[in-house]
Specification:
The chain is α/β, with parallel strands linked by helices. It has four domains: about 120 residues, Response regulator (Rossmann fold), CATH 3.40.50.2300; about 160 residues, Rossmann fold; about 60 residues, Helicase, Ruva Protein, domain 3, CATH 1.10.8.60; about 60 residues, no CATH class. The strands form four sheets. It has a five-stranded parallel beta sheet, with helices on both faces. A five-stranded parallel beta sheet has the order 7-10-13-6-14. α10 crosses α12 and α13 packs across α15. This is Transcriptional regulator (NtrC family). It comes from Aquifex aeolicus (strain VF5). One of its GO terms (biological process) is phosphorelay signal transduction system. One of its GO terms (molecular function) is DNA-binding transcription activator activity. Keywords: ATP-binding, Nucleotide-binding, Phosphoprotein.
Length: about 450
């Protein structure tokens, strides 16, 4: 949307009429009206006359140039000094009257393009799928998993919606990222919509974005995940958790590729590939009324089922080797065989956690003694629980064990506990005040 600030009535009406052939335009004839409109609305470009009846246009430029709007200054009193001053104050461009309308249109389109890129870059960082160390091995010795990868390769360059099914921890997001990476969309964004972490009342605005003033606190326009994924892939993780109130709007978007920002007045269109993932039986959920049946059939055009790790044991040695590389550790053959025969209810994620924990806890070259599987530890857990310890006592015992095992290395303890070093220091101080004895009480890693 464009705001035209011009005190000359004839010129203002003429420009408005010409600009409305291509853009949405509002006008202001003086500084006061312009200031009110800029405070309430979210404009993309402002065409600003410097000489206004009640205020110098540079004052508006100073006041609103940091809001993200692109100012194109128009004046009949132009000189180099004025142009330089306006650019320093944040103006996008400077045009002197009389001007060619085609030049003005080109300048506006350039400003609109730059503003959109700035909005995308500003918002995209927090939502883009970031490549992690978890994007491991798609090499496989398993015929079942080879078949999965073959289907992924065949459908990568189609625009058909894909539904990836599989238990927790099998790597559904990794497969979705793989499909994106080998597709003709690989240079465009891969945006993740985590359906388990977005509150229901925020889902629509996170997905489709909102306009300035759409609700209390909407002080500027925000692009939604759908818009950020334009040209690339939109991945709905655990779509079975999506609120029913949003599913109808998602269905319409998938069918039309059109959406409307919250508080917006016009439909916008994007080009995205839709990939969904779930660990639930969506068909059964739809029969119980917990998931829209029409949405289920729409996203289920191509279904890929990832086998659990216990059904592709051939890949366990490959995965173990991959996880060990990061720490430069080794594992003995008999322990590896034990891992191959373990059921792995948490699949690849559980295997990764077991190996990484063992790598951190082991002091030598081999990790075998530090491997802790739930079946092996049942007896020691039962023995520890016989005294019915409180949660605080359990935490104290575990912290004392880690402190002694890792020789007081606070950094490693923080990694294992998944908390900050400051939290570890605080918990250790609390234990000391309770007169818990620690050997080698000096702490490595410095002070908080």
């Amino acid at each position: 949307m464009i705001l035209l600030v011009e005190d000359d009535d004839n010129l203002r009406e003429l420009l408005k009429k010409k600009l409305e052939e291509h853009f949405v335009v509002e006008t202001a004839k003086d500084g006061k009206t312009a200031r009110e409109k800029l405070s309430k609305n979210n404009y993309d470009v402002v065409l600003l006359d410097i000489r206004l009846p009640d205020v110098d246009g540079t004052e508006l430029l100073k006041e609103f140039s940091t809001s993200g709007v692109k100012f194109i200054v128009i004046t009949g009193y132009g000189d180099v000094k004025t142009a330089v001053q306006c650019v320093k104050l944040g103006a996008y461009d400077f045009i002197q009257k009389p001007f060619n309308f085609e030049l003005l249109e080109v300048t506006i389109r350039r400003a609109l393009k730059e503003k959109r890129l700035e909005e995308e870059n500003r918002t995209l960082k927090s939502f883009l799928f970031k490549e992690k160390e978890e994007d491991y091995l798609l090499e496989t010795r398993s015929p079942k998993f080879r078949e999965v990868l073959e289907i992924a390769r065949r459908i990568a360059n189609t625009d058909l919606p894909v539904l990836i099914r599989g238990e927790t921890g099998v790597g559904k997001e990794v497969l979705a990222k793989y499909i994106h990476t080998i597709s003709n969309r690989k240079d465009k964004p891969f945006v993740v919509v985590d359906c388990t972490s977005i509150p229901e009342h925020l889902f629509e605005s996170e997905l489709f974005g909102y306009e300035k003033g759409a609700f209390t606190g909407a002080n500027t326009r925000k692009l939604g995940l759908v818009e950020l994924a334009n040209g690339g892939t939109l991945f709905f993780d655990e779509i079975g958790e999506m609120p029913l109130s949003i599913q109808a709007k998602l269905l319409r978007f998938i069918e039309t590729r059109k959406f409307r920002r919250v508080g917006g007045l016009k439909d916008l269109e994007v080009d995205v590939k839709i990939i969904c993932a779930t660990n639930k039986d969506l068909y059964e959920k739809s029969k119980r009324g917990e998931f829209r049946e029409d949405l289920y059939f729409r996203i289920n055009t191509v279904e890929i089922e990832i086998p659990p790790l216990r059904e592709r044991k051939e890949d366990i040695p490959l995965l173990v080797e991959f996880f060990l590389k990061k720490y430069g550790k080794k594992i003995k053959k008999e322990t590896l065989n034990e891992l191959i025969n373990y059921p792995w209810e948490g699949n690849v994620r559980e295997l990764k956690n077991v190996i990484e924990r063992a790598c951190i806890l082991s002091t030598g070259e081999y990790i075998d003694e530090a491997i802790c599987l739930s079946k092996k530890s049942v007896s020691c857990v039962e023995k520890m629980m016989e005294k019915l310890p409180s949660l605080e006592e359990l935490e104290g015992m575990y912290l004392k064990f880690l402190y002694e095992k890792l020789e007081g290395d606070v950094d490693k303890i923080a990694v294992i506990l998944g908390c900050s070093r400051r939290t570890v220091f605080r918990k250790l101080k609390k234990l000391r005040e309770g007169k818990v004895h620690f050997k080698n009480a000096s702490l490595s890693g410095g002070t908080p």
